[in-house]
Predict the structure of Alpha-hydroxy-acid oxidizing protein.
Amino acid sequence: MSPQAAAYFLGGAADEVTLQQNRAVFDRYALVPRVLTGMRHGSTALSLLGRPLAHPILLAPVAYQRMAHPDGETGTAMAAAALEALMVLSCQASEPLEDVARAGATCRWFQLYMQPTREATMTLVCRAEAAGYEALVVTVDAPISGVRNREMRAGFQLPEGIAPVNLQGLPPAPPPEGSNVVFDHFMAQAPGWSDIAWLHSQTRLKLVLKGIMHPEDARRAIDLGADAVIVSNHGGRVLDTAVPTLLQLPAVVRAVAGEVPVLLDGGIRRGTDILKAHALGASAVLIGRPVVEALSVRGAQGVAHVLRLLRDELEIAMALCGCNALEQIGPELLRQL
């Protein structure tokens, strides 16, 4: 990647404390292996929102993937399909959502930022429905961008030929009011819970809220019809020093009480990380930076290779912990250091 692209994809907010802690918290948990279990006929299969999946590794939404490699989002979608992984396409993708859907049979979830007008939001929703997407992943934790100092130092700007093509031509945002750009402009246009209720009433697609960290927010999401929630702090890119996702996962799982699936992203780098997340209650995990790093190195082939490695590592970790199905993975396999 160019230094500017690397700053965008790999950096976090401010001092990048949350970015680092998302990864580090996994090492605070040790696995307690089981022996002489005679593991046979093992499987990582699961069902998620009515869709059978071969494994619990999803591809998180990452914007502007053509900035990492010419294969872009279509290459990632082809790799996901080859490795039977569900892909979540970013609202800010650098390729049309219809093209990406055709490129990968498993590109079935569309990440949505609520737009400044409901008309613009519904334009995107209707396109996603027509293209065959099965769920909307509404990102709710970034009404305003974080203070991304690494990007600032690198002088980041989108290179020529890269743009959020799915947002072009949408109705413009209302003009700002007042003198405070944060509160009178960005936050004045930010969605609220009433917008989530409205969206749920307007679409037949499953509704997933991404960026849920507080147990009370998880409960409210379910009350408004959410079909799943994703425990996420935006990869440490929005609010620095926010709690690491794995640390907050058990509290959200308790609040949800099994009513809907709870997913997790942030810091997943090994198959053992996936097992730990599952032991603490996650139904599945999403990976972002490993995908875009692999894409930058070898395009679609690189993404496929990373997915294969993670699934292999998960299966090995399960076998050594005495689990031949995801349902057998529980907190008794973990010891907090």
About this structure: The longest strand covers residues 206-212. The longest helix spans residues 289-320.
